[in-house]
Amino acid sequence: MNQTSATARPxxxxxxxxxxxxxxxxxxxxxxISDFDLWYGAKQALFSISxxxxxxxxxxxxxxxxxxxxxxxxxxxxxxxxxxxxxxxGRISVAGQDLYAPAADVIAIRKQMGMVFxxxxxxxxxxxxxxxxxxRVDGIRHRAMIAETVERSLRGAALWDEVKDxxxxxxxxxxxxxxxxxxxARAIAGTPEVLLMDEPCSALDPIATAKIEELIDExxxxxxxxxxxxxxxxxxxxxxxxxxxxxxxxxxYGDTDTVFTAPKxxxxxxYVTGRFG
Length: 277
Fold this sequence. Notes:
alpha/beta; 10 helices; globular
């Protein structure tokens, strides 16, 4: 991966003849993205992204397929590093730490960023061991500490009452919605700074989706959450802030009510009202 320095630019996006300004909130920022560009080989996928993710809140990334939402999300834990030909410019920082600095510890960064994927991906082991896994990777062997963390994480994921008598059964025997909540429990067991969710409900039925959305609401304030979703109603229900992306550019960013009811940009208006997407 190659990184080049970028000169400072204002928090706005040049997109054709119009400049779309990015609004910012008043909370402290858990993540700061500054003038961030990304290329896959010769193809540029992200263009001058600048936004601050507010601490303790839920930020939704929305936009049509291929607009760069998941690409940006995966930049936050450097999962894109695994792609050949990746090149970036700009800065992403968490608590003042530049995630792409030459001396940055990628493993430590990924521990700071809990990740929940589109499809539930429980490990082929027991429910207990799935949640204990991040602790064992960190070298923790104290049984009481592990058991306490597993219970706390399962309670935090609103799953404890459903599985407390099945902890030593295979996680693969859980329903899809339970598996996704188990993956969230596993993610929060490592006490991450930020919880990343890449369309966490896309493979779930409406009942399981509602439980995940309730869980996101319960985790608000305990974690900074960034969620990618194609579902406009879901973004409106669960998020505090919304970032609308289009063709790799950040078009509008602000509090959810404003973006959905009084967007400042015509493209945002067209997208949230279903005229395209």
